[in-house]
Specification:
Layout: E1 2-7, H1 11-22, E2 27-31, H2 42-45, H3 50-68, E3 73-75, E4 78-84, E5 87-92, E6 97-105, E7 109-111, H4 119-122, E8 127-128, H5 131-134, E9 142-146, H6 150-160, E10 165-170, H7 178-186, E11 190-194, E12 197-203, E13 207-214, E14 217-222, E15 225-228, E16 232-234, E17 264-266, H8 278-298, H9 300-306
Parallel strand pairs: 1-2, 1-6, 2-3, 6-17, 8-15, 9-10, 9-15, 10-11
Antiparallel strand pairs: 4-5, 5-6, 7-16, 12-13, 13-14
Helix pairs in contact: 1-3, 1-8, 6-7
Bound molecules: flavin-adenine dinucleotide.
């Protein structure tokens, strides 16, 4: 039985693992990959912001630690986490079951992809899912932002500070941040397009234009970059039946990164914490690991007895 099983291999998980190793806890990291989003090929993660490099460094540190500690990482997908009395059983897709006193979920999210033929091939070649990542590289450019989420509108406002032209496409007026949309309408370099859908990407090596449509009406916009923020899908299926999730499926956590289940902690993008950022995930992962360690310390005598330490 482990002290802590960490599910995920991104910045939140790596930070948690580094903390737990420093505390000499018996841990297992179960992840499909090490690095998470910061380990993606450059064509998919785009501009290398400083925060990104900090995340890469955390992943590198963790990989270094995993060479020193035999059997630290199990490369697999977790399909279920069960609470069995005072401990947890974690099941992988190969039906490998591992038990642990605590579990820390740091499984991230997947952005909802654009539903346009060939969208995948343009990823990293003008199409992105994170306007905030690229904003500083789009001075004097023409940019299209698609989506009515708070992140999409915030990203558009960030781009509007320096881009030549920002087109903001929202399906209707029912947006997540009406004040931000009102602000965007006031910006001279922003056009808000309501009710249009993206129809096609046009370009050679890189996106140059996009076709948009509303009913029978069509138009073509010059575009150096297109960002779609149509929402995020959290990877939380494995705890759906035991932990409280919000309406969109994010794991509800408090300031200590405790979930609704005693002994179960969560960190990073898959939680209700504000802002999906590498540096936030690193801090979240550390805080969640500290909380899990506090929990283990409080039950240490019982735990030690259970393992025959007396
Ligand atoms: C295109 C893009 C650009 C971005 N640019 C920036 C930027 O410039 N600056 C910035 O600060 N942030 C940026 N972000 C956000 C940043 O990548 C995330 O906030 C950060 O990676 C979150 O870390 P995480 O550990 O919570 O999740 P992730 O990095 O998503 O890692 C999740 C991990 O969990 C694993 N996993 C998932 N499900 C399971 C399962 N069932 N079993 C086992 N393992 C599982 C995954 O394989 C992965 O290893 C960007 C995000 C995207 C998508």
């Amino acid at each position: 039985m482990y002290d802590m099983i960490i599910v995920g291999g991104g910045p939140a998980a790596c930070a948690a693992a580094v903390y737990a190793l420093d505390k000499q806890l018996r841990i297992l990291v179960i992840a499909e990959d090490v690095g998470g989003k910061v380990g993606l090929p450059r064509s998919q993660n785009g501009q290398q912001a400083l925060a990104w490099k900090v995340g890469e460094e955390a992943a590198r540190l963790f990989e270094y630690a995993s060479v020193q500690h035999h059997d630290l990482v199990l490369r697999s997908r977790v399909v279920e986490v069960e609470k069995l009395g005072d401990h947890f059983a974690v099941t992988t897709q190969q039906n490998d079951v591992r038990t642990s006193a605590t579990v820390l979920i740091a499984t991230g999210v997947t952005p909802v992809s654009v539903d346009v033929p060939g969208a995948r091939q343009w990823l990293g070649y003008g199409l992105g899912y994170s306007p905030t990542t690229y904003a500083r590289a789009l001075h004097d450019k023409q940019v299209v932002v698609i989506g009515a989420t708070q992140r999409a509108l915030r990203g558009a406002a960030e781009l509007a500070r320096t881009a030549a032209q920002v087109y903001v496409m929202v399906p209707n007026e029912n947006v997540a941040a009406p004040a931000l949309l009102a602000h965007l309408r006031e910006c001279a370099n922003v056009s808000v397009l309501v009710g249009y859908r993206l129809a096609e990407f046009v370009g050679q090596q890189h996106i140059e234009r996009v076709g948009i449509a509303r009913g029978d009406e069509t138009a073509s916009l010059g575009a150096d970059a297109v960002f779609a923020d149509l929402g995020l899908i959290p990877h939380t299926e494995m705890v759906r039946h035991i932990a409280a999730l919000d309406l969109e499926g994010f794991i509800v956590v408090n300031a200590q990164h405790e979930t609704s289940v005693t002994g179960l902690f969560a960190a990073g993008d898959c939680t209700t914490t504000f802002s999906e950022q590498v540096t936030v995930a690193l801090g979240d992962g550390t805080r969640a690991a500290i909380s899990a360690y506090d929990y283990l310390l409080a039950r240490a005598p019982t735990h030690a007895r259970a393992h025959g330490a007396e």
